[in-house]
Amino acid sequence: MGDGTEVVVRSDRISDEQVAKNELLGSVEVKDDDKEDEVFEEAIGSGNDEQEEDPKRELLETDDLPLEETRQSSKDENEVEDFEEAVGDLDETSSNEGGVKDLNVDYSVVGESHGAGEAGFDAVTPKMNGDTGEGGAGDSCGKVESRLDVVVNTEKGDTNGSNLAAEDVSIENGKTHSFLGNGIVSPKNIEVVAEVISKDDGIEEPWNDGVEVENWEERVDGVQTEQDVEDGEGTTKNLFEERTEEEVVNGAGTGKNLFENGSGSVCIDNESEAKTNGETGAAYTSDIETNASGDKSVNDSTEVASAETSSPLDKSSSGEKGETEGDSTCLKPEQQLASSLNSNPESTEIRSNSGSPGVTSRENETVRNSNGGHDVQQRPQPNKDLEKQQSSKVNVDPEIKENSHVETEAEVVSSVSPTESRSNPAALPPARPAGLGRASPLLEPASRAPQQSRVNGNGSHNQSQQAEDSTTAETDEHDETREKLQLIRVKFLRLAHRLGQTPHNVVVAQVLYRLGLAEQLRGRNGSRVGAFSFDRASAMAEQLEAAGQDPLDFSCTIMVLGKSGVGKSATINSIFDEVKFCTDAFQMGTKRVQDVEGLVQGIKVRVIDTPGLLPSWSDQAKNEKILNSVKAFIKKNPPDIVLYLDRLDMQSRDSGDMPLLRTISDVFGPSIWFNAIVGLTHAASVPPDGPNGTASSYDMFVTQRSHVIQQAIRQAAGDMRLMNPVSLVENHSACRTNRAGQRVLPNGQVWKPHLLLLSFASKILAEANALLKLQDNIPGRPFAARSKAPPLPFLLSSLLQSRPQPKLPEQQYGDEEDEDDLDESSDSDEESEYDQLPPFKSLTKAQMATLSKSQKKQYLDEMEYREKLLMKKQMKEERKRRKMFKKFAAEIKDLPDGFSENVEDESGGPASVPVPMPDLSLPASFDSDNPTHRYRYLDSSNQWLVRPVLETHGWDHDIGYEGVNAERLFVVKDKIPISVSGQVTKDKKDANVQLEMASSVKHGEGKSTSLGFDMQTVGKELAYTLRSETRFNNFRRNKAAAGLSVTLLGDSVSAGLKVEDKLIASKWFRMVMSGGAMASRGDLAYGGTLEAQLRDKDYPLGRFLTTLGLSVMDWHGDLAIGGNIQSQVPIGRSSNLIARANLNNRGAGQVSVRVNSSEQLQLAMVAIVPLFKKLLSYCYPQTQYGQ
Amino acid sequence: MAALQTPREWIGIQQFPPATQSKLLEILGKYKEEDVSSLTVLVMGKGGVGKSSTVNSVIGEKAAAVSTFQSEGLRPTLVSRSRSGFTLNIIDTPGLIEGGYVNDQAINIIKRFLLNMTIDVLLYVDRLDVYRVDDLDRQVVSAITDAFGKEIWKKSALVLTHAQFSPPDGLNYNSFVSRRSDALLKVIRTGAQLKKQDMQGSSTPIILVENSGRCHKNDSDEKILPDGTSWIPNLLNTITEISFNGNKAIHVDKKLVEGPNPNQRGKRLIPLIFAFQYLLVMKPLVRAIKSDVTRESKPAWELRDSGLASRRS
Question: pTM for this one?
Answer without folding.
Answer: 0.47
